[in-house]
Amino acid sequence: MADRIWTLSNTLSAARVLLALPIGVLLLQDDPHARSWAVVLILVAIVTDFLDGFFARRMHQVSEWGKIIDPIADKIAVGVIAVILVIKGAIPLWYVAVVLARDLLILAGGLVIRKRKQIIPQSNWPGKIAVSAIALVLFLAVIDAPGLETLETIALWGSIVLMVLSVVVYAQRLFIGIPSRTP
User: Fold this and answer.
1) pTM value?
2) From residue 35, how far is each of 28, 72, 80, 81, 179 by CA, in Å?
């Protein structure tokens, strides 16, 4: 089963990629109903992110393809939402630059590991938690509810701390060779 491409978990990851387009279109509109629908689709995307990993482990469907498409789906969804939120002035450009720098560092490290060990490294918990924190920052910016400014600021800075931690863990895997797996 590990070599199959269209498993339930991989299909959920692919669905997250497909959700990025309607989310982006909805966020570009100034209609409050469109924003509400974007929030619903973002929640669906978050659920697929949780479920794809759950089913991959539970149904023994962890695959090389899944190790590639899951993080790519995250990057596409986060990228589409983040760019639109920067355009709309809802999040700062420097924040998106930090997220992008982290992702590029992890990608480069993953390519080095792939070349050295002939394996595709699996995500680790600090990385997954960092992505969840980034998603929270973006989600709070999308809902744009009055009175949440303090929570938005805490989430933003907390996600930066978690991104730094995840890069440190990935760097350990690269330079020290510590295997890090998600249970």
Assistant:
1) 0.80
2) 9, 24, 15, 12, 41
Enumerate the domain spans of the chain: 8-175
Residue bearing tokens 């498409």: 69
Comparing CA positions, the residue from 136, 125, 13 lying closest to residue 75 is 13
Q: Is there a contact between 69 and 8 (Cβ–Cβ < 8 Å)?
A: no
Task: Count each helix (H run) and each strand (E run) in the chain, helices first.
Answer: 6, 0
- pLDDT at 6 (0 to 100): 81
Contact 76, 20 (CB under 8 A): yes
Phi, psi of 34 (to 5 degrees): -65, -40
User: pLDDT by residue (tens digit) across 32-67?
Assistant: 899 999 999 999 998 998 888 888 888 888 877 777
φ, ψ for residue 143 (rounded to 5)?
A: -70, -30
What does CATH list as the number for 8-175? 1.20.120
